[in-house]
């Protein structure tokens, strides 16, 4: 087996190859003057582990081209971050179910698919190859432990994300809760933990995705005003759209961390170990 990766996942792909002790195939990428993409990869036959996040449209097209270039190989596709996965329903007539369209397109030519903390697990059913989802909760728990906080509270941004927060919390034996909104007046809303007291405590807000960071920044400010000792933010997929990272930094968070499913300076823990573990099973 060899490991191949697209351009935006080359660091994670390299880590996966090193962790598994497999050779990494060098691939070249460029764009033609008309904007069309070109790639050339090394010899791939037998089995290929293909690591590729699709955080933007260019990465999606590169992945489609890479799958075709590996047509003589049995491909295990690792999608650390799957773009379009959040459009899992048709909300209005005439809309596509984007996650279904992308899953079906990426299924052609692959033997199995591994995703990481996909936003909506039902999306896995759209792949036309066996698909599993793995979690980075253990890696995020190790990062929380490295902060040196005294009995931190792991907070989900809403009730729907509390299961993920509980998965992280159980690895350290920490308390967990979710944020809730209380309308105090026609214009004033309070955001605070649903059941635990944050005063004098270290808070780590966790989620699968941080996109624009707007709600999280507001919550962090209110938690600090309510007496929290420190507020941190951690996610699997750091999208940070529309200046999201700067918004959180401006809100005074003590730290902002993401994994390398989307590679950036915020990548503080890696998905490589969990991918390797899934491959060994």
From TrEMBL:
Pathway: Metabolic intermediate biosynthesis; 5-phospho-alpha-D-ribose 1-diphosphate biosynthesis; 5-phospho-alpha-D-ribose 1-diphosphate from D-ribose 5-phosphate (route I): step 1/1. GO terms for cellular component: cytoplasm; ribose phosphate diphosphokinase complex. Mg(2+) 1 binds at residue 119. InterPro entries: Pribosyltran_N, PRTase-like, PRTase_dom, Rib-P_diPkinase, Rib-P_diPkinase_arc. ATP binds at residues 34-36, 86-87. GO terms for molecular function: ATP binding; kinase activity; magnesium ion binding; ribose phosphate diphosphokinase activity. Residues 1-107 form the Ribose-phosphate pyrophosphokinase N-terminal domain. Its cofactor is Mg(2+). Mg(2+) 2 binds at residue 158. Binds 2 Mg(2+) ions per subunit. Its EC number is 2.7.6.1. The active site is at residue 181. Residues 148-237 form the Phosphoribosyltransferase domain. It is found in: Cytoplasm. It catalyses: D-ribose 5-phosphate + ATP = 5-phospho-alpha-D-ribose 1-diphosphate + AMP + H(+). HAMAP family: RibP_PPkinase_A (MF_00583_A). Involved in the biosynthesis of the central metabolite phospho-alpha-D-ribosyl-1-pyrophosphate (PRPP) via the transfer of pyrophosphoryl group from ATP to 1-hydroxyl of ribose-5-phosphate (Rib-5-P). This is Ribose-phosphate pyrophosphokinase. The gene is prs.
